[in-house]
Design brief:
alpha+beta; Glutamine Phosphoribosylpyrophosphate, subunit 1, domain 1; Rossmann fold; six-stranded antiparallel sheet; 31% helix; 23% strand; globular; binds adenosine monophosphate
Length: 482
């Protein structure tokens, strides 16, 4: 039986924060625009004008709302945080749209979160038993409630108090009437970087959000680090027990934008190197190397370069597919692949193709694209995937489905090849993945440098909600109001 808790709302997201800049709201809107790939369902900004907080949270793309002067004009103040959100299953509710805001004992408090907590429901259950009233179904509200409940005298101590009770992945930005706070969880699973513009500090999920506003990249927030930015400058606090970082390897494979840098590495160069490594591991003869755009493009360039086979755009992507078609339901997903991609017939007829994509999750994309290539007369289609088979679900904020729906969890590569109607299929090896990122020994299983749980099942944190026996009472906490 599927574990129902895996069907709770979880999300991929991007966060942005800026302190003390006269154009805080507009810069945040631009930053969120650069982070749009991390979430397309909703966006929000909260600002503080030294007296009041102002909030705008809307469904839709950043450009749907935050290009309007009427909206930006309402977001007064010199400090702001913002959020883009992609929720998967469960209701897409306006009350879940971040940043969340509450009036706490010490004043207003806004928070925006990228990542997923793995014990949010267990903690929520306890808080509700004690009388807490939750307004959203978002795991982020659990953090807010814990901060609200803490008896510590200063906001930062309340945050530390709250964060020490939660498990999972969290890259956070929070705004109070005194400071902008940034936090990265003890493993640094989701990214958070620090930048500077006109002498003012910025926190954001990816460096591409700094580029768009002409800000300078200063450094990454470290795993387990909290930074407090206020009138006196910036202070770094490391309240948690020091552990080795394990950022999520999937940021490199799919999630981050190729023009971003993470862990000192260019995402684009990493993806090219994955393609090259796959060409070394799984060579095959073909007329063209063709990417599934956009996600397969850098890797296909790397593969083609190494294999000395021409890189061609054999599949054209429609960039104007509406958000409706990014819906998480399987039926709509299947349709959306055809809306999104079309075959460049002139190129394909009678040709042997190496088709490159970064990952297979349910197999929807690959199935449809191979079918289209065959219809267009492809003689052979060799599928090459620049990551290992995804066998385990994610609990840290990436939209992967329950294990039952993961194609590679339940099928061997040969079975997948038959299912996709490909002529051959190869996945990048886990050691090859690490090698391509500069770790010549491959994956050190005693001390892995990344969290690669999707491929290995090696989860760095406890998965308390998933292991809990209180599934149904926990779920009922979320399901009463749609
Ligand atoms: P699927 O069609 O379910 O096999 O999903 C694989 C396709 O979705 C590939 O083209 C990936 O680039 C893309 N993809 C991989 N991971 C994700 C994710 N977490 N969210 C959305 N798309 C993804």
């Amino acid at each position: 039986m599927p574990n129902l808790l895996n069907d709770r709302p979880h999300h991929e997201c991007g966060v942005f924060g800026i302190y003390g800049h006269p154009d805080a709201a507009a810069l945040t809107a631009l930053g969120l625009h650069a982070l749009q790939h991390r979430g397309q369902e909703a966006a929000g900004i909260v600002t503080f004008d030294n007296k009041h907080f102002h909030a705008e949270r809307r469904m839709g793309l950043v450009s749907d709302t935050f290009t309007k002067t009427s909206v930006l004009g309402r977001l007064k103040g010199q400090s702001a945080i913002g959020h883009v959100r992609y929720s998967t299953t469960g209701g897409t509710l306006l009350r879940n749209v971040q940043p969340l805001f509450a009036d706490l004992a010490l004043g207003g408090f806004a928070i925006a979160h990228n990542g997923n907590l793995t014990n949010a429901l267990s903690v929520r259950l306890e808080l509700v038993k004690e009388g807490a009233i939750f307004q959203s179904t978002s795991d982020t509200e659990t953090i807010l409630q814990l901060v609200a409940k803490s008896k510590k005298s200063f906001t930062i101590d309340r945050m530390i108090d709250a964060l020490s009770q939660i498990e999972g992945a969290f890259a956070l930005v929070a705004l109070t009437n005194k400071e902008l706070i940034g936090v990265r969880d003890p493993f640094g699973i989701r990214p958070l970087v620090l930048g500077e513009l006109d002498g003012k500090y910025i926190l954001c999920s990816e460096t591409c959000a700094l580029d768009i506003i002409g800000a300078k990249f200063l450094r990454e927030i470290e795993n387990g680090e909290i930074v407090v930015i206020n009138e006196s400058g910036i202070e770094s606090i490391k309240p948690f027990q020091k552990i080795n970082p394990r950022p999520c390897i999937f940021e490199y494979i799919y999630f981050s934008r190729p023009d971003s840098y993470l862990g000192g590495l260019s995402i684009y160069e990493c993806r090219k190197a994955f393609g090259k490594q796959l060409a070394i591991e799984s060579p095959t003869d073909a007329d063209y190397v063709i990417p599934v755009p956009d996600s397969g493009v850098p890797s296909a360039i790397g593969y083609a370069e190494h294999a000395k086979i021409p890189f061609e755009l054999g599949i054209i992507r429609n960039h104007y597919v509406g958000r409706t078609f990014i819906e998480p339901q399987q039926s709509i997903r299947a349709l959306s692949v055809k809306l999104k991609h079309n075959v460049n017939r002139a190129l394909i007829d009678g040709k042997k193709i190496i088709l490159i994509d970064d990952s297979i999750v349910r197999g929807t994309t690959s199935t449809k694209i191979i079918e289209m290539l065959r219809d267009a007369g492809a003689k052979e289609v060799h599928m090459r995937i620049t990551s290992p088979p995804i066998k385990f679900p994610d609990f840290y904020g990436i939209d992967t489905p329950i294990q039952e729906q993961l194609l590679s969890a339940n099928n061997t590569p040969d079975e997948i090849c038959d299912f996709l109607k490909a002529d051959s299929i190869s996945f990048l090896s886990i050691n090859g993945l690490y090698k391509a990122m500069g770790h010549s020994q491959g994956r050190d299983s005693k001390n892995p440098l990344f969290t690669d749980h999707c491929f290995t099942g090696d989860y760095p944190t406890k998965l308390s909600d998933n292991e809990s026996n209180e599934e149904f009472s926990q779920l009922s906490l979320l399901s009463n109001l749609e």
